[in-house]
What we know:
Chain A is mainly α. Chain A has helices at residues 3-22, 27-45, 50-56, 59-75, 80-91, 96-113, 116-134, 139-153, 161-170, 174-199, 201-204, 211-215, 219-222, 226-249, 253-268, 272-277, 281-299, 302-312, 318-335, 338-354, 360-373, 382-391, 400-428.
Amino acid sequence: MTVVPAILAAIIFFGSLILIFSEKVHRSITAIAGAALMVSLGKFFGFYSEEAALDAVDFNTLGLLLGMMILVAMLEPTGFFQYLAVLAARSSKGKPGRLFILLCVITTILSMLLDNVTTVILIAPVTILICEIIGISALPFLVSEALLSNTGGVATLVGDPPNVLIGSAAGLSFNDFLIYSMPIVLVAWAGALFLLRYLFRKELSKRPRGVKAIMQLNPAETLNEPLVARRILIVLSGAVLFFFVHHALGVSPSLVALSAAAVALVWVKPDIQEVLKRIEWSVLIFFGALFVMVGGLEHAGVMESIVGVLERASAIPPILFGVGLIWVVAVLSAVVDNVPITIALIPVIQGLGESGMDITPLWWALAFGAGFGGSGTIIGSTANIIVATLSEKTRTPITSKIWNKRGLPVMLVTCAIATILYTIIYNWF
Amino acid sequence: MKVSSCMKSHVVSVHPTTTIREAATILVKKHIGLLPIVDDDDKPIGVVGMRDMLTLELPDFVSFLADVDFVHDFGAVEDTRPSAKTLNKAVKTLMKPAITVDDDCGLLRAYALMLQHNLHDMPVISKEGKLVGITSRVDIGVAILSIWPKAEK
């Protein structure tokens, strides 16, 4: 390893991370600029090339994200998410405590299948509407929806972008996540739900006023295109079935997701321009550019030296290593986007694996840390930022002070539960 | 024809420190929809409209939803009133930037500005930038249409 390329690559990558953290420039713009700089300098100094950059892109991750985004983009205008929320509102009979649990459960289930940001974007507006009609503050609901979608998303391969990345890099299947991640996440989730129900007990004990109006809501009227909704839900269920067996069939999750998207497109034949407009291209570009940047770090030998340092620390018992990873990643994820952290740590863990360490537990530690850590601050995850932004147009805006009182405890509790269960399970296997 | 020929020159305006409660009283008393906010030199620094005031009663969450046709009864929203604390805030907290026209502006240009910015009323200013009047879509529309009957048959 030569020193100059390593220093250059590290400056570009960590400089980009700091810029992303500062939020002065949109993260996708920073990532593209960083990637272009990495490839250009890499070519000039001979440590990176266009071919190597293309190789560094994990197309499995991009395909899986794109496929799921197309399905959601088609489901969104059908009003299906409003339908679920209105159904919850009616069966709660306007009781805030019951509505809280129902909406939290719906959000969690959705976030296990869809990415958290999408889930929150779809469920938050109708949540605000329902709370306004009942005459209670939407704040406890919005904060909890973001926190529980962060938590629930960790349970499945497709629930959270870091999981997609980890699954793809480590070769973990959809079922691996159901077996190893879901049980721990469910316990952590239940802990988070009880904690939030307790922390918001005052707000949720307010007497509802608009119960009559809530009972007049007709779920059927919320569906704009029932036939389209039904077709997409059938395709989505089919995709989930294939996710269960993708490993056995030797098929990648991205092929399953993209095929499902293709089937839905052919069956529904929507206005494709409208569907493509709703795809979050900036997210896909952000991922692609990060892959290219981290590829540059690897080729410049930065990862090797980090792995080298960590190896010298291998006197530490592996279990402490895993627990340490959960908390370090969680704290980092609370202040910076968890995607760049995950993408950067994947080659480090792979490097440790090549040096003979058993890295399977480390993948799970990374998933828990990246997933639960985002709950800690108002900027910790995109879902948090979205509910905070939406809440500005309600009577009770979410401030970072409120988040520190409600979100931070959730992060600490979920990470603590994950640590305890991780330690127990680690000793069993 | 110039905009000065079809504006109301008895224009009611307020200072930025006026409370929201006082501003509301003026809107009600004068039955108007827009209040220019002026500095000590009578220069407009912003406006506060009926719509901005009403967001205190109906926050803009409605804009997040594709439609609210399925909601037949707004329930508690209908009788939620802004708190005394909110009403005692200065009107500048609701202030929007003022889009104004010069008093020698042509009618159709003024109308185009109102269309473009989705305005119903627009403050009119003098060369020196002082508030001299206020015009509305109806004022301008009536001024334009009034020429038609006199046009060649």
